[in-house]
Write a structure and sequence with these properties.
By secondary structure, this protein is mainly α. The protein contains five helices and no strands. It starts with 7 loop residues before the first helix and ends with a helix.
Length: 90
């Protein structure tokens, strides 16, 4: 019996390919950002596979959001640390 759905990795690559014209229209520096977003989604492929979403792009977006949130949290932590150091300086 054949598979009825593509493995998530293939869905991810197909989704990324569907954005090819959009990516090509971006400025070079924005293309790099775009590529980083899909790299974040690839990082969470296992979780996306387990999500079992009817629309795979939902899992892709959630993966991207997780990585963006991680970056925001890390930057906030660094800002707090710098503020604490500045406050402690004589």
């Amino acid at each position: 019996m054949g598979r009825t759905v593509l493995p998530f990795t293939q869905e991810l690559y197909r989704e990324e390919a569907s954005w090819k014209a959009f990516r090509r229209a971006l400025r070079r520096e924005d293309r790099e950002l775009f590529d980083e977003l899909f790299a974040a989604a690839r990082y969470h492929t296992a979780a996306c596979t387990c999500a079992g979403r009817a629309v795979p792009f939902e899992a892709i977006l959630m993966s991207i959001l997780l990585e963006e949130r991680r970056a925001v949290r890390e930057l906030s932590r660094r800002v707090e640390e710098l503020e604490r150091r500045r406050k402690d300086e004589p």
